[in-house]
Amino acid sequence: MDDIALREKANLMIKLSQDYEKERMSAAKNRLKFRLILASKLTELRQAKANAGIDTLELMLLEEGDKETLEYYRAWHYHENKYKGLEKIIEAIKESLHLEKFLGRIE
Predict the structure, then answer these.
(1) Number of domains in the chain
(2) Which of 64, 75, 83, 88 could lock onto 30 through a cystine, CB 3.0 to 4.6 A?
(3) Which 3-state string (H, E, C) describes 31-84?
């Protein structure tokens, strides 16, 4: 692998890593906002179903259909899926670099 191609892959890794960080922070921010809404309505939701776990409580909250709550939930999962996808791409590029380095030693 020549230096130019290596530099291009390194620049791509930097950009993807920055995008990853941005998406992860956005997912965390939206998750926090969603969970704050859940916490504020916890007593009300527990009255409806006392032994409910967190997943059930989240579904109960979503069933209420509050637009703001739905938006935070959607944004949380959208950004979470996006950063997980970026994570896979970054790992694939790392593996590609390791393979190319290994093959370069063999030749």
Answers:
(1) 1
(2) 75
(3) HHHHHHHHHHCHHHHHHHCCCCCHHHHHHHHHHCCCHHHHHHHHHHHHHHHHHH
- Tell me the Cα Rg of the chain: 21
- pLDDT tens-digit readout, 60-95: 999 987 899 999 999 999 999 999 999 999 999 989
- Cα–Cα distance list, 9 to 58, 62, 74 (Å): 41, 42, 32
| C-alpha–C-alpha distance, residues 35 and 76, integer Å | 11
d(CA 2, CA 39): 55
Note the pTM of the prediction, 2 decimals: 0.81
Instruction: Supply the range of the domain harboring residue 30.
Output: 3-106
Contacts 24+ apart (CB under 8 A), 73-77: 73/30, 73/34, 75/26, 75/27, 75/30, 76/27, 76/30, 76/31, 76/34, 77/27
Q: What is the pLDDT of residue 14?
A: 92
